């Protein structure tokens, strides 16, 4: 892992390396919560919008990618994963939810980032009347699962066996992208619409608290623009149908990772992170 000039820790490999290593969160009666807010410094850049190829009559002609969701009131950043490095144990659900489409977010992943415990099930539900095809890749870019949800209301579950940062996409819609991040322990949280997070029942001890964000700088946006322009020309000429357009997906591989050393005692702790 390298560092940028402003001290941000970058890279997927680093976040994967820390899962399941280090401090043991021992079972003790005393515990506290670690909470706080992740904010953005300055004016956030506009999120890119890309063309919708399939089901544009239902989804719309273009979709904004929710790679940097900043609350205008408090600058809080949604979809940041905050976790204790090297912890063990902690709370775990039997399954974690991933929904596709709802009245306010049709043709997209409702949970842009899902954080969960490794080897638990991911419950996927399609609430749109169009085919969605959730497909995850592990950190070695190997397919973890690839399922077709063709009907509205259809639900399926898959066990997430690969830890670390798993890329998520819908193979039917190039604009639908996200992440499933699987931990060896249960001490993590995903920031809400105001950038807030809370990790509960943390045993006393010294930890490294880390905030992960996918980044908002696409590595291949020129290719995305080029492929969209070429597709538009072919559609206008009548050589292809809109649903057959081959569009590039934006790639965000230099993820942002910020860490702070903390000590949890017998009272709740508040920690702040700032993205730049």
What is the topological layout?
Elements: E1 9-10, H1 12-18, E2 32-40, E3 49-51, H2 56-59, E4 62-64, E5 69-70, E6 77-78, E7 81-85, E8 95-100, E9 113-117, E10 121-126, E11 134-137, E12 143-146, E13 155-159, E14 164-170, E15 173-183, E16 188-190, E17 196-202, E18 205-213, H3 221-237, E19 256-264, E20 269-275
Parallel strand pairs: 2-20, 8-10, 9-15
Antiparallel strand pairs: 1-19, 2-17, 3-4, 5-6, 7-16, 7-18, 10-13, 11-12, 11-14, 14-15, 18-19
> Roughly how much helix do the residues carry, as a percent range?
10-25%
- Count of beta strands: 20
The CATH architecture can be named as Sandwich
Give the mean pLDDT. Answer: 87
Please write the string of helix (H) and strand (E) elements.
EHEEHEEEEEEEEEEEEEEEHEE
In the CATH scheme, the class would be Mainly Beta
Unreliable segments of 5+ consecutive residues: 1-28
Portion in beta strands: 35-45%
Which assembly state applies to the chains in this document?
single chain
Radius of gyration: 20 Å
CATH topology tier name = Immunoglobulin-like
Can you say what the CATH homologous superfamily is?
Cupredoxins -  blue copper proteins
Spatial shape? globular
Question: In this structure, how is the largest beta sheet organized?
Answer: 5 strands, antiparallel
Structural class: mainly beta
Total count of domains = 1
Give the end-to-end Cα distance, rounded to a whole number of Å: 18 Å
Individual helix count: 3
- Enumerate the strands of the largest sheet in spatial order, edge to edge or round the barrel: 1-19-18-7-16
């Amino acid at each position: 892992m390298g560092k940028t000039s402003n001290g941000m820790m970058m890279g997927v490999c680093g976040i994967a390396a820390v899962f399941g290593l280090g401090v043991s969160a021992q079972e003790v009666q005393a515990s506290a919560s670690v909470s706080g807010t992740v904010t953005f410094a300055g004016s956030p850049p506009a999120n890119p919008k890309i063309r919708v190829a399939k089901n544009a009559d239902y989804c719309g002609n273009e979709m904004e990618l929710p790679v940097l969701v900043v609350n205008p009131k408090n600058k809080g950043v949604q979809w940041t994963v905050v976790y204790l490095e090297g912890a063990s144990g902690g709370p775990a659900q039997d399954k974690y939810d991933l929904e596709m489409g709802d009245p306010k977010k049709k043709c997209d992943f409702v949970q842009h980032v899902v954080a969960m415990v490794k080897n638990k099930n991911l419950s996927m539900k399609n609430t749109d009347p169009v085919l969605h095809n959730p497909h995850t890749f592990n950190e070695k870019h190997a397919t973890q699962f690839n399922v077709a949800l063709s009907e509205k209301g259809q639900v399926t579950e898959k066990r997430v066996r690969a830890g670390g940062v798993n890329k998520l996409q819908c193979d039917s819609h190039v604009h639908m992208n996200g992440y499933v991040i699987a931990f060896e322990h249960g001490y993590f949280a995903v920031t809400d619409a105001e950038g807030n997070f809370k990790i509960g029942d943390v045993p006393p001890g010294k930890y490294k608290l880390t905030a992960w964000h996918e980044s908002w700088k696409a590595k291949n946006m020129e290719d995305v623009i080029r492929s969209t322009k070429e597709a538009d020309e072919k559609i206008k000429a009548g050589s292809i149908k809109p649903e057959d357009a081959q569009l590039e997906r934006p790639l965000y591989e230099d993820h942002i990772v910020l860490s702070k050393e903390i000590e949890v005692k017998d009272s709740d702790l508040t920690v702040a992170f700032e993205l730049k």
